[in-house]
Amino acid sequence: MRQNLRIGLFGFGVVGQGLYDVLASSRGLQAEIVRICVKHADKPRRLPAEMFTLNAHELLDDPDINLIVELIDNADEAYEIVRTAMQRGKHVVTANKKMVAEHFAELVSLQAQTGVSLLYEGSSCGSIPIIRSLEEYYDNELLSSVEGIFNGTTNYILTKVCNEGLDYATALKQAQELGFAESNPYLDVYGHDAKFKLCIVAAHAFGIFARPEQVFTYGIPTLGVNDIRLAREKGFRIKLLANARKLGQKVVLFVMPAFVRPDNALYKVENEYNGVLVTGAFSDRQFLQGKGAGSHPTGSAVLSDVSAISYYYRYEYKKHQQNGSHELTNEVLLSVYLRYTDEAQIADFGFEEIFERHYEPREQFFYVAGRIRLSRLMALPDLPEREVFLALLPEPEVELV
Question: How many domains does the chain have?
Fold first, then answer.
């Protein structure tokens, strides 16, 4: 039997309005948004003024509201909203990946203590149902890797820059105008948005609760024209990839640009779309693709959680129960491309093997390709500010040291 849901909604921005639209168009779901908490009273909105309030307690203290949907962009405020709602016996749906990733273990424990449901499909990979798939479809599969394009903003920028010849600033501006990028795109372009999503996905794929600061993260702002030219010459495309791989009883997580070959399904994932490759012992490799940014795609993921809660659904964290012995490691070797300007920089990276060097003084284009420890990259805190570009090579595979 389904329960009737009376929803208190926090935030009425891009995703909040998307949820309102898809909920209004849905059939068979007994759910109603009864109150919306926003930050600014004077902002023009398309719903009656009496629907809105600036007071969070009008939602959190209302005994008739049994579901809180949190869709604001401030992770600290979102945490207080979610924690308070759960403590007061209300189910919660959120799309705030930073908040979930930073408080993951605590929120899972709070769900167990309170008996309410906390769902967050909209936090990861837009319209792709990756979390529910991992939690239900792959619950007894022996997964070896989950990797993919987790951020629609960077994929849109890379599509325009690498495929269409736009400069980085123009591509970023387009992404902002289309609503794919925030006015401050830092979390997107430096890879942190994908990192938060990777922490969430890894918990459902491998049962490991990684803290964001444990995950190596490197973005795309230093991408240059020579990097793009080289990728074209080799028949590759450049994608910002999130990687979760199981090696024995250990799991490695990292986010960085990668050269992707045409035989990889992620090669053709363009614009604001996301793509996820899931590899298992029995199911082999499967590919999921969908829009990773935008009002209605993310709104549809949030709606799926609302629908699931109407059936009393909650995550069971099955892989965590099965695989409690898995450990996070950064002691692995990666095959990488490093473009640099100063020969002295190479020593800082501590390559254990270099199998290709390139010098092109006229174009000021110098690079090496070789094997490096991920832990060595983690030890370079100023890496994002250096005049270099780093990318994962297609082969050989990541291996334990």
Answer: 2
Q: What is the pLDDT of residue 288?
A: 97
Specify the amino acid at residue 363. Answer: E
One-letter identity of residue 172: L
Please indicate, yes or no, if residue 136 is contained in any of the structural domains. Answer: no
- 265, with CB counted inside 10 A (0-12, 13-18, 19+), is middle
CATH code where residue 336 lies: 3.30.360.10
> Which stretch of DSSP H or E encloses residue 376?
helix 374-378
The encoded tokens of residue 122 equal 């909209």
Phi and psi torsions of 38, nearest 5°: -125, 170
Q: Report which of 177, 175, 201, 199 is spatially closest to residue 188, judged by C-alpha positions.
A: 175
**Average pLDDT of adjacent 10-residue blocks, the chain of 401 residues:** 92 90 86 94 86 96 98 96 98 97 96 97 93 94 96 96 91 87 89 98 95 98 95 96 95 98 96 96 94 83 95 93 82 97 90 94 92 96 93 85 79
* Cα–Cα distance, 128 to 143 (Å, whole number): 18
HSE (CB half, 13 Å, CA atoms) of 135? 15
Q: Are 130 and 276 in contact (CB under 8 A)?
A: yes
- Per the residue annotation, which of 90, 195, 197, 246 is the catalytic one? 197
What is the pTM for the complete model shown? 0.96
Same structural domain, 267 and 338: yes
Q: The domain containing residue 86 runs over which residues?
A: 5-130+296-321
Examine the domain organization and report whether 214 and 356 are in the same domain: yes
Same-domain status, 255 and 386: yes
Query: Quick check: 120 and 304 in contact, CB under 8 A?
Result: no
Predicted confidence at residue 325, as pLDDT, reads 63
Buried-state track 90-115, b at ≥16 Cβ within 10 A, e below 16: bbbbbbbbbbbbbbbeebbebbeebe
Q: How many helices and strands (H and E) does the chain possess?
A: 16, 18
Query: Is 239 within 8 Å of 260 (Cβ atoms)?
Result: yes
Give the other-Cβ count within 10 Å of 123's Cβ.
Answer: 25
Residue 90: active-site member = no
**CA dihedral defined by 104, 74, 18, 314, rounded to 10 degrees?**
20
Tokens read off for 37? 């908490």
